[in-house]
Amino acid sequence: MTSPNPALVRDVEDRRTFAIISHPDAGKTTLTEKLLLFGGAIQMAGAVKGRKANRHATSDWMEVEKQRGISVTSSVMQFKYKDHVINLLDTPGHEDFSEDTYRVLTAVDAAVMVIDAAKGVEAQTIKLLEVCRMRNTPIITFINKLDREVQDPLDVLGEIENVLKLQCVPITWPIGMGKTFRGVFNLMKDRLVRFTAGQERLTKDVEEIQGLDNPELDRLFPMEMPYVRESIELVQGATEPFDIEQFLAGKQSPVFFGSGVNNFGVQDVLNALVDWAPSPKPRDAGSRMVEPTESPFTGFVFKIQANMDPRHRDRIAFFRVCSGRYTPSMKVYHTREGRDMKIANALTFMAQDRVLMSDAVAGDIIGIYNHGQLHIGDTLTEGEKIGFTGIPNFAPELFRSARSKDPFKAKQLQKGLQELGEEGAIQVFTGEFGNIMLGAVGQLQFEIVAQRLATEYKVDAIYESTEVSTARWLSFPDEQTKKDFMREQEARLATDVNGNICYLATSIYNLETTQKHWPDVVFHTTREMSQRFE
Ligand code: G4P
Fold first, then answer.
1. What is the enclosing helix (H) or strand (E) of 331?
2. Which of 52, 87, 153, 207 has the largest count of CB atoms under 10 Å?
3. What is the mean pLDDT of the chain?
4. Distance from residue 261's CA to the centre of ligand 1 (Å)
5. Mean pLDDT value of segment 488-515
6. Would you tell me the crossing angle of helices 123-134 and 98-105 to the nearest 10 degrees?
7. Higher-confidence position of 51 and 367
8. Phi-psi map region of 25: left, alpha, beta (phi>0 left; psi -120 to 50 alpha)
9. What is the C-alpha separation between 505 and 517, in angstroms, rounded?
């Protein structure tokens, strides 16, 4: 292999690509906005604050999202901070969109976990962390809302360690909370950064006091300092020192305390990202690992979103660059379809604005206009036949049959569902007689799909309950077994949007019985998004 191009190496090293994970309401949107503010990407925060007055966060896009106040889509934002290019991928917080979140997490190199200090570890935090753990994603922890009466920080840390089984290393430590929140003490730098309540500001003019033993601290905070020193001593005695290797292996998390809504502690998180989070890493492409600094361009689609902007009725494929450099209008090789295509006018995203991308390297996310040729999980290269792995589809747990209220709109329903299925918004299975079955991981997915069918495809869908209770993708040892199985099980079979054959079982008992009768047929609970079963 030729030695890497120094400019490419430098650009890749400057990249930090991460997502924020949290339970709804912990403060993810607020932190996103404040990070953008510090990154100079937006001029004014406060959109979040005013959300109840019908304004919405800068990163929210879709109508349903605005109406429901939850983040259904995942947005991507790029900004610069300290000579680094930061790519921030937003994830839906609601558990019904966990599949979507999983796919976004395959495209990042690190995650920031936001915890509400009053509520501690919540259900969705646990799930999201499990996903991060599958890939050993390094995690930075931000414990939020210290301007409120919250739990004792020692208890919050204890909970993270016990429930999430993640070793915590506090880098900052709060002094007081709620009305007496005084600031955070940086244990590495041995200095206090003071908090001024209610004052939204960038920390250019922060007041700092050096040294935990500084008598100035006792003069200012006589009530709090004895307990603070005691807690710090306790926590330092009980935790390991910060070890960057352990962090990069996803085993240890540096912890910061703060208040997102007050801009407090936000810069600590950004600094940790720049100083400690990894630049893009090699990626598994099936037959080999792809180095981010290799010159040939490669990457994969991890998300497809339709109609992001009602003014441009189109679909965008979100593509993570894994190596090489994107140049406008470049010709690439579509490995699943085995043909060349041109990426015309790739986009980068800045909140609601889309900007034409002129240059992208590993870690960057580009948006590619898509008319159905790209599916989630697709790999693009400069000719090499490889396929990036690790972007699965999970077997759905909830099922509904779907038909159009107006029988003359059956075609429209089919088109809409095919597109929404390719987008990964819901799983769509078509039976032998054209009957359509929808599969979801969460109930809300059905509602969102019905809304989108109505607004984007002008078709009212009727859902009905069905006897299906679980689905499995199938693969066969040989053509004869496939034929025999399909003949016998015809009534239980359907195909997904990629043409894979699925077995729709009425119960686990039904599934197990069939599996026993057909020991050579493999029933898969997950499949790689771009995978075709034979
Ligand atoms: P999410 O994306 O994780 O769902 O959370 P989001 O940022 O929307 O924040 C949830 C609520 O928590 C919001 O209040 C937000 O203002 C508040 N919040 C975020 N960070 C802090 C913080 O550091 N301190 C305090 N006290 N509150 C914080 P809301 O009542 O839902 O909306 P709003 O009326 O404040 O806009």
1. strand 331-334
2. 87
3. 86
4. 7
5. 93
6. 40
7. 367
8. left
9. 14
Nearest CA to ligand 1 atom 27: 145
| CA–CA distance, 116 with 146 (Å, rounded to integer) | 9
Q: What angle do CA 376, 378, 382 make, to 5 degrees?
A: 150
Integer Cα distance of 475 and 356 in angstroms: 42
Contact 17, 108 (CB under 8 A): yes
Residue ranges around ligand 1 (CB below 6 Å): 22, 24-30, 48-49, 51-52, 93, 144-145, 147-148, 259-262
Q: How many residues does the chain have?
A: 534
Inter-residue contact 113 to 173 (CB < 8 Å): no
Ligand 1 atom nearest the C-alpha of 23 is: 3
Q: Please, which residues bridge with residue 392 across strands? A: 528
Q: Is the pLDDT of residue 47 over 50?
A: no
Question: Which residue CA neighbors atom 33 of ligand 1 most closely?
Answer: 49
SS (H, E, C) 77-119: EEEEECCEEEEEECCCCCHHHHHHHHHHHCCCCEEEEEEECCC
Q: Do the beta carbons of residue 27 and residue 147 sit within 8 Å? A: no
Looking up tokens 């999970």 gives 394
88/36 Cα distance (integer angstroms): 9
Q: Between β-strands 289-290 and 15-22, what pairing exists: parallel, antiparallel or unpaired?
A: unpaired
Side-chain half-sphere of 53: how many Cα atoms within 13 Å? 5
Angle, CA of 382, 293 and 355, to the nearest 5°: 70
Query: In this predicted model, what pLDDT tens digit does every residue of 381-394 receive, in sequence order?
Result: 999 999 998 777 77
The Å distance, Cα 77 to ligand 1 centre, comes to: 20
Mean pLDDT lowest among 244-248, 296-300, 373-377 = 373-377
Q: Which tokens sit at 372?
A: 């159905």
Q: For 116-137, how does the pLDDT look when each residue is reduced to its tens digit (9 = 90+)? A: 999 999 988 888 888 888 889 9
With b for 16 or more beta-carbon neighbours within 10 A and e for fewer, the 234-252 pattern comes to ebeeebeebeeebbbebbb
Give 306-335 pLDDT, tens digit per residue. Answer: 655 555 556 788 999 999 999 998 999 999
